[in-house]
Amino acid sequence: MIEAISLSKSYSGFKAVSELGFRVDDGVMYAFLGPNGAGKTTTIKMLTGILTPDSGDALINGISITKDPVAAKRNCGYLPDVPMLFEKLTGRQYLNFMMDIFEIPAASRRERTEKLIESFELGPHIDSLIESYSLGTKKKIGIVAACCHKPPVLFLDEPTSGLDPQSVRALKDTLKEMTGRGVTVFFSTHILEVAEKICDRVAIIGGGRLVAEGSVAQIRAGLNAPGDGHDDPKSLEDIFLELTARNPVQGESSVPG
Ligand SMILES: Nc1ncnc2c1ncn2[C@@H]1O[C@H](COP(=O)(O)OP(=O)(O)OP(=O)(O)O)[C@@H](O)[C@H]1O
Ligand SMILES: [Mg+2]
């Protein structure tokens, strides 16, 4: 379970995220959508304890990320938007390193990684140095590293970017299998067809504020007032474009990071 409680974050006076609140129940696949610069990555970094919020808090399975960050992080897997890997390790060494951090017993490691390595077709690369990997292969080892310690809550920042169609299918199957086991999956994406196909609920943010939240059907129903002339059900893409046009992202921060 994930609970965001009035999360806010500014970068040198520029408000990137404003009083954001939502709740994601166990076993829910939750798509986090918004235009470039809307505040998705900033939010995910606050939810995972990488960035400290200016105000507000987040609970991961009931544990505060600001008050008890280590205990909260024990419950999390995280794929960053850009690969952050130790490139002088092989893929297998990196997965072992991640499982060391999460204190996964040696006896269960093979069972945890074998199927993931196979699903993402990483077998031919797993004993090569990560620096030799293509961008998509780096993404895939990052996904496996986020999942292999079997976290109850998984955060993925744009997991589909750079993946080929086979890998997108492997990702969708893996995530569905995880939510089926009760894992809470929170992912950002710009690929709205993927989001519409696999998510149970969505949040759409614009300018750091929540503009819509619920199942796609609920959000669609909120937009389609009876007799407004929309006979065809709106796709998630139509909904996204309509809502984000009403709530444009303010000028991007020009403050250097
Ligand atoms: N380190 C930083 N320093 C200054 N401003 C930042 C920093 N990181 C993000 N911002 C600003 O905060 C806002 C939100 O950025 P963020 O990366 O969270 O957006 P996003 O929704 O993830 O966008 P994208 O879809 O492009 O990944 C933007 O205006 C961005 O310029
Ligand atoms: Mg981002």
From TrEMBL:
What are the alphabetically sorted keywords of the record?
ATP-binding, Nucleotide-binding, Transport
Instruction: Check the record and name the SUPFAM superfamilies matching this protein.
Output: P-loop containing nucleoside triphosphate hydrolases
Name by which UniProt lists this protein: ABC transporter domain-containing protein
Q: Which Gene3D superfamilies match?
A: P-loop containing nucleotide triphosphate hydrolases
Q: Where's the ABC transporter domain? A: 2-232
InterPro entries assigned to the protein according to its UniProt record, in alphabetical order? AAA+_ATPase (IPR003593), ABC_transporter-like_ATP-bd (IPR003439), ABC_transporter_ATP-binding (IPR050763), P-loop_NTPase (IPR027417)
Q: Name one GO molecular function term.
A: ATP hydrolysis activity
One Pfam match, by short name? ABC_tran
